[in-house]
Amino acid sequence: MFCPKCKSLMFPKDGRFKCNKCGYTQGKEKIKENKVVTEQKEKEVVVLEEKVDILPKVKVTCPNCGNNEAYWVLRQTRSSDEPETRIYTCTKCEHHWRAY
Question: Is the pTM of this model over 0.90?
């Protein structure tokens, strides 16, 4: 929040906002009106009973079961000047392996 008088940044102090530059204070009413005070709200959580396919798939042979389809993700496992590592997960047996 910025001070309406000197346009400097205001800081919270004792439930109000106070400008350290010019001394202007803004009361609790304004804080609530500008929605600076946050209220705790209940959040709805969704629980999925089934497995959902959200990762990309590729045709590659699983070394564990021989399945021809796997999910893949890219991770930076080494330093930033090295290429990323592709990590595969078999769609059938969920075996993990990686390709550099």
Answer: no
Number of residues that this document lists for the chain: 100
- Choice among 29, 50, 81, 94 that is catalytic: 81
43-92 residue pLDDT tens:
677 776 776 678 899 999 999 999 999 999 998 888 888 888 999 999 99
Residue 49 is among the residues annotated as catalytic for this protein? no
Q: Tell me if residue 82 is catalytic.
A: yes
The rounded radius of gyration (Å) of the Cα atoms in the chain is 27
- Domains of the chain, CATH where assigned: 1-41 (no CATH), 57-99 (2.20.25.10)
Task: Return the closest-CA partner of residue 99 out of 66, 65, 58.
Answer: 58
For 60-84, b where at least 16 C-beta lie within 10 A, e where not — what string?
Answer: bebeeeeeeebbeeeeeeeeeeeee
Catalytic residue among 33, 82, 84, 94: 82
